[in-house]
Amino acid sequence: MKKIFASFTVLLIIGLSPAQSQTDQDAFRYSRLSTGGTARSAALSGAFGALGGDFSTLASNPAGIGIYRVSEFSLTPTIYVEKTESKFLLGTQDDTKFNFNFGNIGLVYTKKLTNDQTSPGWKSWNFGFGYNRINNFHNRSYYEGFNDNNSLTNYFAENAAGLHPDDLDPFYEQLAWNTFLINNDSVQNYTAEAPNGQILQRRSQESRGAIGEMDFTFGGNFSNKFYLGGSLGFSTLRYVEESNYEEIDKNNLIDSLAAFEFNQNLNTRGVGFNFKFGAIYKINEWVRIGGAIHTPTWYSLHDDFSSEIKSRFDSGRTYQDESIGEFDYEMTTPFKAIGSIAFVFGKLGLLSADYEFSDLSGARIDATDVNFTETNSVIRKKYRESGMLRIGTEWRFANLSLRGGAAFTSSPMSSSYKVNGYDFTEVNYSGGIGIRDNHTYLDFGYVYHQSKEYFQAYSLSSETVPGVKNTMTAHSFLVTFGVKF
Question: Which pLDDT tens digit goes with each residue over 380-389?
């Protein structure tokens, strides 16, 4: 039987349990990118692969840099508002998060090679460098509901079965053991403090951070018909997540246990690099086609993470235990390919479309001293290829431009992991206006983003665990200031 009576213990673990934070969810989170960059690109939902001439193309199709005829500097401050509606059991709750950031800041320098625009040959070389924000992790959510079937303590007891207390996972079951949420007999047969549920469950979660990319791009214009470009991208990643899970014996239906909290914190930082290659070809003055290939991004990441359980019993006794860890590892995101077409109607307007293909099952996690074979196997089984279709249009009226767009991303989940209606598909709708003269411009953009996701706080082999259906909507307001010289 368990013989621990301390009311407070702290366990320090350095690199002992990397699986606490390095999972298939990390590969998913860091591989999917969002619409960002300049206000003009965002207003067209990023459908710029065959158009070029916008700083955002350095991160999508670097051949777009060859479209520039003059040098240019641009800066894009952005306001981001995200709301998550969570449906759990019979209740619905929501929460909101605000963020201010910069969608882009960058410079494109154009070196004109000739004044003859009619003869075949290279017309210009272009070099660009700067920052594009390519993912935003700011989110806040909350849910609660009364579970009359099971408890997180069942999960702890199930995972602990057959193990000596000293061999339990220090970030999960060992914390539950030290805070009396699970008990055992002499043959390591663990029992849960709330075996039949009858308990109020609630969870609050907040995340923040982003992926930004510094691109160094070189491209050229050949005969005003064929444009080539390549980018070396350096990514910076920061992700912070803080979650608080609680179970409360609200109706005094459980012997002994009154309530407990399970708090988890994760702070991930890292850098990565990738290469991008692209081309744009003008079939005629009306039609352009484009294509780009993105190598995987090779990340070097560092995690700091912690888990803490606080329990309270009807007797008045309280217990607390905490585990702290850190870990270094590598992650490889999937290869991507983009095909594009655009129709340009002189100075009146344009219509553009991109299709982006990626296969999330190709993501990998590795480390020098830990085997991630099981995690990578889960990635291969759980995820599949997916596509994103982006469509945008722009119409000009003298110095004023009106813009709109939409983007649709298919589910990256394998069929056996999909939950109907909450399968991680995404949709964007966007619009904006621009005011331009010969040397300066001011663009405004708006993006509405929605995704539906499914989340379970735990799972059990013998019975169904209720999940949370999250509908996340985000609003991005972008303003780009630009100067041509």
Answer: 999 999 999 9
